[in-house]
Amino acid sequence: MKPVLLILLLGLYACSPSPEDLANIASQQFRESGETEETWLHDGELHFSTALEWQKASFQNKRATSSDFLLALDEQGRLVINISDNQSLKIHSEELTRKLNKKFEIIGPAVDNKNKYKDQLISDAVVLIASQNGWLKSV
Questions:
Q1: Against a cut of 0.85, is the pTM above it?
Q2: N or C: which end of the chain has fewer CB within 10 A?
Q3: Would the pLDDT of 31 be above 50?
C-alpha cells in the first residue's frame, strides 16, 4: 500500500505547477487583460518577489499582485472560489493581501526580519494561504 501512495503523491507533485510557473502566469495577467477602468487592478509588480519586498510595497501594488495571482490560479483551473466579476475578485484580492501582510509581518531587529523573510517567495505563500482558506480544488 505504501508504494502505491508514494507513487500517487509523486504523480500529484509532478503534475502541480511550480510556484515559478504561477508567478509567470500571474505576471502576465494584467498585460493580457488589456485596459480596464478598475484602477485597483493596475501596477502589481511583486510576482517574483520575496517577503522582504512585500513588506516595503504599497497596498495598491500588493492588492494588484494578489489579484494577478488569483487570476493565474483561476486560469490554471485550481480555484473553487468564483472570481468571475471584478467585485468578487477585489474582495478576495484584499483578503489575500491582508493574510499575506499578516504572514509577512515585520519582526523586530532588522537582521532577524531579514533572515526570516529573505528567501520566502510571495508565490509560495499565495498557494499556502489559498489552500488553508479552502480556495483551491482538492487534487
A1: no
A2: N
A3: no
